[in-house]
Design goal:
mainly alpha
């Protein structure tokens, strides 16, 4: 990977990670469109450490309160009723599906699932589900009403993002909307829920890259670190913008963008302009 590729892909990762348009799909598509090929699942996971660092910084106070309350709840049962302690437990519960499925389908995630046919189909199909959820969801629940069952539902939706094109934020926000949560509440829990899963995946892929045990594209460490730093800076700005936007805006623009991009990909793949794998 060249330094130019790292700059472009790092910016793409930062811009798309928190929007419901799938950062992994965009890294895959941009790499192919510029003739650079697939940057690989390992590169994608490692650069996501940068965007999750942006989450840690932006929500540092919330995360600090959650961690402290959760730790206290381990020895003091009365603390478990504290909203921050409950959130800590619900983040753990919601993280289980993606951990289990990520380990079960690791090789497919790094190879088969990265086919552009799958990416294009997922972009279109899940955009329509997001559109439906945004229309029928009551949007009257906040995170104080989050239950264990809802946490698992959010977690299963997040696990769908193991397929490029689904979108981690898009999947979890869609689940939240169907469950009646407001756009901002669903997005907030989506960001918090992603922290352990994404950091775990990123550091696991980094370890495998260091040991040479990567099924897909190998990692060029210098450019990858640069891309990760850029993703952090851009991602921090995108988080702030998206949370403000969701106070008044809908997901329709993202839905339209996903459908157009997915349809364009299908045309380019069908005409042979782009290679699927």
């Amino acid at each position: 990977m060249s330094w130019l590729e790292a700059v472009v892909l790092g910016l793409v990762q930062g811009l798309t990670e928190f929007l419901p348009i799938s950062s992994s799909a965009h890294l895959r598509v941009v790499g192919e469109a510029f003739g650079w090929g697939d940057p690989g699942a390992a590169f994608t996971a490692i650069t996501q450490i940068g965007t999750e660092a942006a989450v840690l910084l932006y929500f540092r106070r919330d995360i600090g309160h959650i961690i402290r309350a959760w730790v206290r709840s381990l020895t003091d049962r009365s603390v478990r009723r504290d909203p921050d302690a409950r959130m800590g437990w619900l983040i753990i519960v919601g993280s289980v599906p993606i951990v289990v499925l990520g380990l079960l389908f690791q090789d497919d995630i790094e190879t088969t699932f990265r086919s552009l046919w799958i990416v294009a189909t997922a972009l279109i199909a899940f955009s329509l589900i997001l559109f439906w959820a945004d229309r029928v969801g009551r949007k009257d629940r906040d995170l104080r009403q989050l239950t264990v069952g809802h946490g698992i539902a959010f977690g299963l939706a997040q696990a769908m993002a193991l397929i490029p094109g689904v979108s981690r934020s898009g999947g979890t926000i869609t689940a939240g909307l169907f469950l009646g949560y407001s756009r901002a509440a669903a997005a907030r829990y989506s960001f918090l829920l992603a922290v352990p899963a994404v950091l775990g995946s990123g550091f696991f892929q980094a370890y495998e890259a260091l040991t040479g045990d990567v099924a897909g594209q190998t990692v060029s460490w210098g450019p990858t670190i640069l891309a990760t730093v850029l993703a952090f800076g851009v991602g921090l700005t995108v988080i702030a913008w998206l949370l403000r936007y969701l106070d008044r805006g809908s997901f329709t623009p993202f839905v339209v963008y996903r459908v157009v991009l997915g349809a364009l990909l299908l045309v380019l793949l069908g005409s042979g302009v782009l290679a699927a794998q």
